[in-house]
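Hey,
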Amino acid sequence: MEQNKFDIKKVKVHRTTSGTVLEMAFILIAVIVWGLIIWMVHQAPDIVPTHFDGSGNPNAYGSPVRVTIPCLIITIAAIGCMVVAYFPRYINMPVEITNIRQVELTITSVRVVSITLLLMALAVAYTMLGMSSPNVFPVLAIVGLLLVEIIAFTVLIHKAK
């Protein structure tokens, strides 16, 4: 039995400069995103597209206030990611975490993804409220960014052995 086996359950997350910067950026971006969402809701016509088919064409319409529901859900998920960053044993990564550097990278990846989720909420609102001819490109662009972030951090975490 190995005496020095790394145990992620024993890791305590403390405040760091980089963590605080990402958390402050998260708060600032959240305030800006929700300010823009509220502004777009007030500027929108009475009826807006609220759902899109597989081709990206609007196929349901409703009140602009209904657009805030998915944005709120995405924001809650982003806040959840920021909270989970303090409990790295609950972060599921596709590589085994075997040292503290990998834990640090995992925490950073979750914080970066949470900020990107805020941008997803803005993309959803912009797609439905801000575009003169709605299409799903802004949302797909953020999904692509999320995939790139996840892949890049997974590679970095794997190489940090």
